[in-house]
Design a protein that fits this description.
The structure is a single chain. The protein is an alpha+beta fold and 196 residues long. Helices cover 27% and strands 27% of the residues. It contains two helices and twelve strands, in the order H-E-E-H-E-E-E-E-E-E-E-E-E-E. The strands form two sheets. Strands 1, 2, 3, 4, 9, 10, 11 and 12 form an eight-stranded antiparallel β-sheet that branches. The protein has a four-stranded antiparallel β-sheet with strand order 7-6-5-8, with no helix packed on it. The longest helix has 48 residues. The N and C termini lie far apart (86 Å). The mean pLDDT is 86.
Length: 196
């Protein structure tokens, strides 16, 4: 009787070890699947929804400063339209340069002109521009510019120290060149907040 009990006891021990090993591998597999799903979700968020961009140069001085890191909402223009005065990150098609940041002034099918330091939209002086200075250099906008169906006219808030749609190497930008809307300053910490 005692011999049978010992054999019976021994026969259960390997099964218990095997069971706990299976549980361990199941737990590892679950963690692996969770990490994989989190990685996929992270990639989708970065690829299609959000991205960070570093501000380069003084062209948006007063709103954004050189070296600040901003949050770009890439989803904004997939579900909505670009609006006047939105701050956008864009990159000209065919260039390997970094994303640049400017403010949208002219919208599709509008006519833009800069005369005597003032921006005119469809012949009307722009009321409450986002910059305080008169525009010293009208560039190609000294003659009226007609925007196409998906074209935008952009200016830097530091309007007299900005390379933007007034210059032939930038010109009007298309919606396909816009990465997204610049919504927030992420760093440095002292500057954190919404972009207006």
């Amino acid at each position: 009787m005692s011999g049978r009990k010992e054999k019976k006891g021994l026969s259960f021990r390997p099964k218990k070890i095997k069971l706990s090993t299976n549980k361990f591998f199941q737990a590892v597999f679950r963690w692996f699947v969770l990490i994989f799903i989190a990685g996929i979700c992270g990639y989708v968020l970065i690829a299609f929804c959000f991205q960070t961009v570093t501000v380069v140069g003084p062209s948006m001085h007063g709103t954004l400063e050189d070296g600040q890191v901003v949050y770009v909402n890439k989803l904004a223009y997939k579900i909505g339209d670009v609006k006047r005065f939105d701050v956008v990150a864009y990159k000209k098609v065919g260039t390997d340069s970094y994303y640049d940041i400017k403010r949208v002034i002219g919208l599709p099918n509008e006519k833009i002109q800069i005369r005597e330091g003032i921006v005119y939209i469809n012949g009307q002086a722009m009321m409450e521009p986002p910059f305080q200075e008169l525009v010293v250099n009208s560039g190609i906008a000294s003659a009226e510019i007609s925007l196409g169906k998906n074209e935008y006219f952009i200016l830097g808030d530091n309007v007299n120290n900005s390379e933007d749609s007034r210059y032939t190497n930038i010109g009007n930008i298309s919606k396909s060149e816009i990465l997204g809307r610049v919504d927030r300053i992420l760093s440095p910490r002292k500057d954190k907040g919404k972009v207006k």
